[in-house]
Automatic annotation (TrEMBL):
It comes from Mycolicibacterium anyangense. The lineage of its organism: Bacteria, Bacillati, Actinomycetota, Actinomycetes, Mycobacteriales. One of its GO terms (molecular function) is oxidoreductase activity, acting on paired donors, with incorporation or reduction of molecular oxygen. Belongs to the cytochrome P450 family. It holds the Pfam family p450. This is Cytochrome P450.
Amino acid sequence: MDQFDHHSPEFAESWREQYAGLRAACPMAHSEKHGGFFVATDYQAIQQILHDPQNFVCGRDLDLGDGRIASGGVTVPTNAVRMGMMEMDPPRSQALRKIISGRFTKRAVQEYQPRMQQLVSWCIDKVIESGSIDFVDDIANPLPALITLDYLGLPLDRWEFYATTLHKAAYREKGSGRAVASMLDDIRATVRERRAHPLDDGSVLEQLLSGEENGEPISEDLAVELIFMLLNGGIDTTTALIANSFLYFDDHRDQWEWLAEDHSRLPAAVDELIRYTSPSTGVARTVAQPVEVAGVRLDIGDRVLLALGSANADDQVFDNPNEVQLDRAPNRHLSFGSGVHRCLGAFVAPAEMALLLQEVLNRMPDYRIDREKVVAYPTIPLVNGYIAMPATFTPGEKVVAGVLADDLPIQLGTSAASR
């Protein structure tokens, strides 16, 4: 247990088994890796921590009171790039969240779904006539990027750069740090352009740039940080969900057929896929004052990794957790977190996934994945995803007429997110 390392290739290959072993042996185990940290694997322990922002903080640079400063943040070890309000604590995090939270309500997402459907159809149209697809390169990478950029009010022509950068950064590919730095520069250029020439389109970006903190306009640095956080949260975790889901159904055709019989089953099915695949492997907290969790005493400055994927497989909460039950109810999974830092996109990703599943069920239901050519992330410290997933299917016809010269979806004009 003291050598547990969520950055290791071994963890990527057997994370379910490793988490199960930790849950059974010690739900609050300690690892000597990465400077030392605890790993919480029990559902109730993780819930306790998520709902106690006073004792378990997300912020960086925690003053330990003895001249030492804990690095903090929501990753172990601390990420090189700050993650916006994810790495802030109340009341500041909640004040910033309030500026844009209206764009992430269930109603707002429902109003956006026609635009989301257009982007889903466009992605399928790109491959439908060929009879072949790579679920990562052709769907799982572009679709979440297009939807996230569009929803935020960012230029769609940046989708490939942003998606590729975040995709490779998730599994720490060599050189990905430089690409992230370039991406941050690109976001900064967009912020400056929008500040100089506001569109007044009601988008998330415009709401953010017109927002205030302590009576002052949101600073440029903070705006860049918050946008990066939203992009990071909206793109690669959904990329992982998409790839994991289609790989699962390729191996469980009976459940695929069951879903095809009645598309009203999609919402519950998507929720279960989000639980089972657990795209985000975990988040971290720093102990702000002495506290006890699951019988283990934690001291100021201790780092704790919350193994969300383990909580989602806790048999004290979920019956037969290692089985996918597409009609599972209730389904109190923690894939989106819980408490004051619950994921802003908790309504966006399920809607996106449901529309995509429906589109594939209708247009390429007989897809089969070439499993010998599937390539998983070599490490999954943050996101449980794939690099390649080629497949074949019976070719079909396009449904969206016309593509712009720059190869982006039609009818771009005003983003539907602003309507």
